[in-house]
């Protein structure tokens, strides 16, 4: 199988500048694939999928009649990012995370950004992720968003945009690490000839970030990963990261607040816990403060956290920055807090709570993508160009009933990467989720999760909606 007939068309292709013309930095990979004998690439693809299966790399789909566990689809053709391009992404992501951290600290503190009229108070207070019980919280070092997954896309001209921010419990980094492991065994020769930045330092950086928020003066802090349990869609990742860091994976029932501290039940009695990497949403983490019916969290955890006797990553309340309406204000936040212009722009966004913008959105639903403010995974979304008139009409009623809950954006012509479908190469749309850690410094793992739409023509890359993933190669030079 060769790339001779592969045509990028009118899209920005991550590997090819035009038909038959690889981008210069992708040439070693293209030449290697073109040199493979007939059927060998398909065999390698099948071997990679079997390796994924044996490693147990799965995700769950709630309500799926075919069963809860699925192997995460993986495509063998990687995305490649040039070194200079990555440097700009790195700068832009650090600027954005620094800003969002200042914003979260501000709105749970003095709320200067509201008092100065940059963001309306109603927008903050009506955000699902804004939690009044978090007012006055002081996390260690005033760092709130320790782990972030920021979704990026690029358009027809190759321009990068931030699609959304994920600061609650961003998932997917385990697939980044396991994809790379499979690729290094599949294309070992290419790895020897191309200078590809490693991604496997992420677990050690993550552990360092977590230890950074332990209560002071502890010689050997105890860190745990708190999971909702085996039925959570990202349980594989929870157990994987705990194993990679060498820490305990626990559920809420394994923890208890006793003698003013968070403690873990062990066969030798209670053991103090100093840092919790939570993979549970705020609503469920402490039934005494948030949802009283939660069986997943730990009663009294918030009080111990407020007293500074345990560190939690991410800090409680960070989900306010995931709200897609608040996302639209990030450029203003960057100017307000840093006095800078954004390095990585937002996708142009219409806010339906503003009457004139609502009028435009309703009149142009056939051209726009409309998203619910707090949904994820491709749910609560209308892709107007692919929707029927009745679907657009039905969605218009939802918008009119709750305009605060919706934003709209133009339909971007997302970049594509050659993908192996039915024994041939097809250009499939992709996005990119780099992972950013905020400890003593801000660290961006070089690469991220490239999610790919495995349905022809689809723009939805989420695994729950039929998407898969690719390895992301960031070059060193």
Automatic annotation (TrEMBL):
It comes from the Bacteria. Residues 78-453 form the Circularly permuted ATP-grasp type domain. PANTHER family: BLR5612 PROTEIN, SLL1039 PROTEIN. This is Circularly permuted type 2 ATP-grasp protein. It comes from Oxynema aestuarii AP17.
């Amino acid at each position: 199988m060769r790339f001779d007939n592969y045509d990028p068309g009118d899209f920005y292709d991550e590997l090819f500048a035009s038909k038959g013309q690889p981008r210069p930095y992708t040439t070693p990979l293209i030449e290697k694939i073109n040199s493979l004998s007939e059927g060998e690439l398909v065999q390698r693809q099948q071997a990679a999928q079997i390796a994924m299966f044996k490693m147990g790399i799965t995700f769950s789909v709630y309500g799926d009649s075919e069963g809860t566990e699925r192997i995460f689809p993986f495509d063998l053709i990687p995305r490649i990012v040039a070194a200079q391009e990555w440097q700009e992404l790195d700068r832009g992501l650090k600027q954005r995370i620094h800003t969002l951290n200042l914003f979260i600290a501000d709105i749970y503190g003095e709320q200067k950004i509201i008092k100065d009229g940059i963001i309306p108070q109603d927008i903050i207070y009506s955000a699902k992720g804004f939690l009044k019980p978090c007012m006055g919280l002081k996390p260690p070092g005033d760092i709130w968003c320790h782990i972030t997954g920021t979704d990026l896309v690029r358009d027809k001209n190759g321009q990068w945009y931030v699609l959304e921010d994920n600061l609650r419990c961003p998932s997917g980094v385990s697939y980044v690490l396991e994809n790379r492991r499979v690729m290094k065994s599949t294309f070992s020769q290419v790895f020897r000839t191309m200078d590809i930045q490693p991604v496997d330092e992420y677990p050690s950086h993550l552990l360092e970030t977590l230890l950074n928020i332990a209560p002071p003066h502890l010689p050997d802090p105890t860190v745990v990963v708190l999971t909702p349990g085996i039925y959570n869609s990202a349980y594989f990742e929870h157990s994987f990261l705990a194993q990679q860091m060498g820490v305990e994976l626990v559920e809420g029932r394994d923890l208890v607040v006793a003698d003013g501290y968070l403690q873990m039940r062990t066969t030798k009695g209670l053991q103090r816990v100093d840092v919790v990497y939570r993979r549970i949403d705020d609503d469920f983490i402490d039934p005494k403060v948030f949802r009283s019916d939660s069986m997943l969290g730990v009663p009294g955890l918030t009080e111990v956290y407020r007293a500074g006797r345990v560190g939690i990553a991410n800090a409680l309340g960070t989900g306010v920055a995931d709200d897609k309406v608040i996302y639209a204000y990030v450029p203003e936040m960057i100017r307000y807090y840093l006095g800078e212009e954004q390095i990585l722009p937002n996708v142009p966004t219409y806010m339906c709570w503003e009457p004139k913008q609502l009028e435009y959105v309703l009149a142009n639903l056939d051209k726009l993508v409309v998203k619910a403010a707090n949904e994820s995974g491709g749910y609560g979304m209308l892709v107007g160009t692919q929707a029927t008139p009745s679907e657009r009409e039905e969605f218009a009623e939802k918008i009119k009933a709750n305009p605060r809950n919706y934003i709209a954006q133009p339909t971007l012509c997302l970049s594509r990467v050659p993908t192996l479908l039915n024994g041939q190469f097809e250009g499939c749309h992709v996005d990119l989720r780099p992972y950013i850690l905020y400890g003593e410094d801000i660290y961006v793992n070089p690469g991220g999760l490239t999610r790919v739409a495995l349905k022809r023509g689809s723009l939805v890359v989420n695994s729950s909606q039929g998407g898969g993933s690719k390895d992301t190669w960031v070059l060193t030079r």
